[in-house]
């Protein structure tokens, strides 16, 4: 006999705060923690590319996943619809999932590509080598 509920709906821990901060860019990175629907990701730099791997098994990337980039922030959104015919226990997470990550300096936003294989979404962002600006000395004028 299972002690787990048949279906458990996740709700925001702080719905009023979630609504209040919805318009702020910083909030997009905090929102998943507050709403409890966080995509699991790994990121790394490899061969001149910033790679983000997102764990999303059982999703159709053509229908369920959107990837956007704005002001140097990459956002992955996904939606998993609950199956209505399930009569037993379910431990799957359903609903909307989102994750935003800041892109590194030199990211070529126009060349971002994504692939989906065996439940893992990989977003590849080419990164141009950036040269640190030379140190500039400022003259001080005294009166």
Characterization of the model:
By secondary structure, the protein is mostly beta strands. It has a domain at 38-83 and 91-126: Sandwich (Immunoglobulin-like). It is built from 3 helices and 7 strands. The protein has helices at 15-20, 27-35, 61-64; strands at residues 40-46, 49-55, 65-70, 73-80, 95-102, 113-117, 120-126. The strands form 2 sheets. It has a 4-stranded antiparallel β-sheet, with no helix packed on it. Strand 6 (113-117) and strand 7 form a beta hairpin. The longest helix is centred in the first third of the chain and has 9 residues, at 27-35. The chain is elongated, with a radius of gyration of 21 Å. The relative contact order is 0.20. Residues 1-12 have low confidence and may be disordered.
């Amino acid at each position: 006999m299972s002690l787990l509920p048949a279906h458990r709906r996740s709700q925001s821990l702080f719905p009023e705060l979630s609504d209040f901060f919805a318009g702020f860019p910083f909030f997009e990175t905090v929102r998943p923690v507050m709403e409890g629907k966080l995509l699991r990701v790994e990121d790394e730099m490899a061969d001149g590319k910033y790679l983000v791997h997102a764990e999303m098994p059982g999703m159709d990337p053509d229908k369920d996943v959107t990837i956007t980039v704005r002001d140097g922030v990459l956002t992955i959104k996904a939606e998993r619809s609950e199956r209505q015919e399930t009569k037993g226990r379910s431990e799957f997470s359903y609903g909307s999932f989102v994750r935003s990550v800041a892109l590194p300096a030199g990211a070529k936003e126009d060349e971002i590509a994504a692939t989906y294989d065996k439940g893992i979404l990989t977003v590849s962002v080419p990164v141009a080598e950036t040269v640190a600006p030379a140190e500039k000395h400022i003259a001080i004028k005294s009166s």
